[in-house]
Structure formats: C-alpha cells, structure tokens
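Sanity check. The docking grid for nicotinamide-adenine-dinucleotide depends on where the pocket ends up, so I'm generating a full predicted complex first rather than guessing from homology. Inputs follow.
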Amino acid sequence: MTKIIINGYKGRMGQALVACAPQHRGLELAAKIDVGDDLATVIGQGDVVIDFSSHTTTVAVATLCAQHGKALIIGTTGHTDTDVFEIRALGKKIPMVWASNFSTGVNTLFWLTRKAAEILGPDFDLEVVEMHHRLKKDAPSGTAKSLAEILAQVRKLHLNQAARHGRHGIVGERTPSEIGVHSIRGGDVVGDHTVIFANTGERVELTHKASSRDTFANGALRAAGWVVKQAPGIYDMQDVLGLK
Ligand code: NAD
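Predicted complex below; grid placement will be based on this.
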C-alpha cells in the first residue's frame, strides 16, 4: 500500500482528491492537512505528499519531503522563477511529479499541440486562450504556460520574450515571433484551453474543456502510485502516462 498525505484537503482540488482516493487500489489516505496544520507532524505517516495547496508553500513542502525522503506530487501553479529554481534543486533528492495539469486529455493536448506546431510551420500565428472560474488566483493558468512553452520550443523562441499577455492600446501589427496568451475569468469554469494556429485563409483550433476536477484528482492519484517507484528526479504527467 502506498500511503498518501494530501496538503490543501479543504480546497476545491483537495476535496476532489479525498473523494477519488478510495477508488485507487494500492493507495491509502494516511493524513490530510490544510492551513493551520503542520506537515512536519504527519509526514512520517506517508510515502508521498500530494500538494494542491498554494504555490507560496511548495518550496517549504518540497524541502520537508527531501529531508524525510518522501516523494512529492506538485499540483500547485503560479510559482516564481526563484521557486522554480529551488524546486528543481530539491528534485535531485527525491522523486517528484510536477505537472501544470494532471488530466489525460490535457496531456494529449500537449502532445497534439507540439505535433500541430511542427506540421503547420512558421506561417501560422500562435495564440493560447484559457478560461477559468472567478476564484482562480494566478494568470495565465499553469496549463496555458505549458502550452505556450511547447509552442516556443517548436519555434525556437524564448517564451519570456515571445509571450504577449493580452493586448491593449496601439500595440502595432502582430509579428511572427509572438505567442499570444490570454486569460478569461468568470463563473465556475473548471478549465478551458484553446490553442489557435491562424494563417491566411485557414485556422486550426485545438480545445480541451474540463468539466470536473476529478479528472485532475485521478491523474494526481495515479501519479502518486507511480512516483514512489521512481528514482529521484522531476517527472511530469507525460512520463506517468508513457507519452514520451
Ligand atoms: P483552493 O483555494 O480551493 O484550495 C487551496 C486549499 O489549500 C485551501 O483549502 C487552502 O486553505 C489550502 N492552503 C492554502 N495555503 C496553504 C498552506 N500554506 N498550507 C496548507 N494548506 C494551504 O484552490 P484549488 O482550486 O483547489 O487549487 C489549488 C492549486 O492547485 C492552485 O495552485 C491551482 O492552480 C492548482 N490546480 C492545479 C491543477 C493541476 O492539474 N495541476 C488543477 C487544478 C488546480
């Protein structure tokens, strides 16, 4: 039995994880914590921590996991460059799955986005549009950033320079070296992502729409069962699904 600890269990994702966990054979919920609890007091009870709390606590959670030799699933998004640097260093000590999106459908979208960008080539303008519920705190979504990063890799661009986060005012004509990234917020939308490839005379759009958080929760739980068997390192959901 792989013993899991859920961090952020009172949240939208945390509740989905608690509800879905019993359906995963081989996993046992050892502890669940939220704001006001101390992970240090329960970490000895688990083999793997599943963290869907807040990006502000990921480095502290990863540090504790590394100190205790526990595996980690990072579901939080919105990390700073400094967070990313520190998490990568800690990923040399323990196995982690770090994914901006744990759904099978979105990981298929990642694969399709790379393929489409390669096939369609540089004449197509690239734009990513995402929509989430009104309570989401970070923008653009981690998934939109991953999609834009895939497009940048295929085009051999640096995303920090290529990304155009919304447009406002006299921004001038669109250049071929930009990747538009646009965030829409409202209602209770679980997560919609569209990648647009637009050329003169034709347009391809790849869209994924999540209608239940269970899709992310089940992916993260599957990753938890997988990660405890891996050597130290940082893996993503494509590794878990065998898409690489
Ligand atoms: P939420 O606000 O509903 O829940 C977060 C929970 O974490 C809350 O219960 C909160 O009290 C708790 N929390 C906050 N800070 C904490 C801390 N320091 N220690 C312990 N608990 C703490 O948010 P949500 O919609 O469940 O999303 C949580 C995170 O997961 C966000 O970063 C979101 O972007 C991300 N997310 C990722 C995926 C994915 O597939 N990777 C999918 C959905 C959401």
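Relevant for the grid: Residues 7-8, 10-14, 34-35, 52-55, 57, 75-78, 99-102, 138, 216 surround nicotinamide-adenine-dinucleotide (CB under 6 Å).
Also worth noting: DSSP finds nine helices and eleven strands in the chain.
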